[in-house]
Amino acid sequence: MTDGFLVPDPAATGTVAASVARVAELAARLGLSHGEVFDVHQLSQESGVPADVVSALLDGRPAGEPDLQTRFLQRFDLLRTTRLKPNGRRYTQQEIADGAGMSRQQAGALINGDRRPTMEHCDAIQRFFKVHAGFLTAEDSDALDGALQRTEQRLLHDYAGESDPLERLLQDHGVRGIAWRAAQLPTDKHRDKVTEWLDMLLESVKPTEP
Hints:
- The chain is mostly helical.
- It has helices at about 15-30, 35, 40-45, 50-60, 70-80, 95-100, 105-110, 120-130, 140-160, 165-175, 175-185, 190-205.
- About 65% of the residues lie in helices and about 0% in strands.
- The protein is elongated, with a radius of gyration of 22 Å.
C-alpha cells in the first residue's frame, strides 16, 4: 500500500483480450458493428482510461500509466470534464469539496496534484460523481476490462431478451450460466455430450416411484 492506495498486481495480463473476444462474439450474434460496441471514447468515459490507452489495449498493445498519482489525476480530470451539472457546467472546487466532505483547500490540492489522495478521499470523490469503486485508482487494463465486462452484461441481456419467456425460465431456475457455457463449445458433438451428462444426472436424481 502506498499513501492509502492498494498497489495493483502487474501480473494480471490477458484479461482484456479475453473480454474483447467475448464482447465481439456477442456483438456478432446481435448484428452489431465493431464500432458500436468498441466505442473508444465511450469506453474511456466509463473506465476513466485515456482514449489513446483504450485504443492500444483493445489492439493488444501494452499500454497504461503505472504511476498511481498520475493515474488518479487523469481520472479526476476526466470526471470533472465528463460528469457535469444539470446545466452543463463543471462542478466547482467548492461544490466538489462540499459533496465529498472535505475543505476547498483539500479539494484544490488534490485537483492540482499538490497532495496525494488517501483511499478515503477517493471513495468520497467517487461517491460524489456516482462512479463505481476503484474508478480513480484501478490499473488501466483492469479499469478497461471492467468496462468491457459491463458491456458484455448489457449485450447478454439484449441477447436473451428482457421479455423472452426463455429468459425468465433461465433466471428462475438459475441455468443461464450452463446454457451460455454450452454455447461456447466448438461443435455439436461437444454440446451433445453435455446433453448426455445432464440426462444422466436427471436420471440419478429422479424420485423412485412407489
